[in-house]
Amino acid sequence: LKSGLGGHYIPETSCSSWRLGVEAHNIIDWKTIPQECEGYVGNYVLGERYREDSRAVTEEAYKYAKSLTLGGDGKDIWVFDIDETALSNLPYYAQHGFGVEPYNRTAFREWADLGIAPPLPETRILYKNLTDLGIKVVFLTGRSESLRDSTLKNLKYAGYLNFETLILKNNSTEYKGKTAVTYKSSERKKLEENGYRIVGNIGDQWSDILGTNTDNRTFKLPDPMYYIT
Fold first, then answer.
1. What are phi and psi of 212, to 5 degrees?
2. pTM attached to this predicted model
3. What CA–CA distance (Å, rounded) separates 53 from 19?
4. CB-based contacts of 179, cutoff 8 Å, min separation 6
5. Which of 26, 81, 100, 198 is a plausible cystine mate for 203, CB 3.0–4.6 Å?
6. What confidence tens digit (pLDDT) does each residue in 32-84 have?
7. Banded model confidence at residue 13, pLDDT cuts 50, 70, 90
8. pLDDT tens digit string along 198-214?
């Protein structure tokens, strides 16, 4: 792409535009990032801009949370996704092309089993602020139920010490072959049927915040590395 009267080339503008399309949910169902955008995406997620973008989302979420009138009965909850929301898998993706390589379930499971993913700092701040307000946190993740122990270990390692529950996906039963939107909508519905009030919902994927039983406000964190339907 070119800009200005002289038609000067702007480095990486095409990758920047691609990322905008991803975040706006205009580019969907993609399997890997463009090969030529590996450097751009890597620089973004390892740099200050990613942190600033994440901070803009979480600060807006906290501002919204402070405006709420809570029930005071312990039933107000905020739903958090885990990967690229509560936890950051950048140490893994730095070794796998920041999304250039196709998703490898076995390799990612080996990483997740270590239980050492750091927190996304901005999300951990939001988590603390919400719990200080009296809002309980529920973690709802597409991770397999078989990763429960390592996920619990990792959440505590990352500083998420108090939360209401952790919901993982059992792929061998009702959700086999179903989309993440279907799975997460169903689990949020179950939470509400059990008397909880979902007052907020945050995730890095559109599939975290689309569907039903999402509450009035949802918050999308940036993630140009992968797409989940």
1. -110, 170
2. 0.93
3. 13
4. 207, 229
5. 81
6. 999 999 999 999 999 999 999 999 999 999 999 999 999 999 999 999 999 99
7. low
8. 999 999 999 999 999 99
Backbone angles phi, psi at 157, to 5 degrees: -60, -35
Three-state SS at 141 = strand
> Residue type at 10?
I
**Cβ neighbours of residue 64 under 8 Å, at least 6 residues apart?**
200, 217
Other residues' Cβ atoms within 10 Å of the Cβ of residue 36: 12
167-205 burial string, b = 16+ CB within 10 Å, else e?
A: bbbeeeeebeeeebbbbbbebbeebeeeebebbbbbbbb
Question: What's the pLDDT tens digit per position in 171-180?
Answer: 777 898 899 9
Q: Which long-range contacts (CB under 8 A, 24 or more apart) does 216-223 make?
A: 217/61, 217/64, 219/57, 219/58, 219/60, 219/61, 220/23, 220/57, 221/53, 221/54, 221/57, 221/58, 221/84, 221/85, 221/120, 221/123, 222/23, 222/50, 222/53, 222/54, 222/57, 223/84
> Residue 3: is its pLDDT beyond 60?
no
Starting at the edge strand found earlier in the chain, the sheet holding 165-169 runs 165-169, 136-144, 76-80, 197-203, 218-220
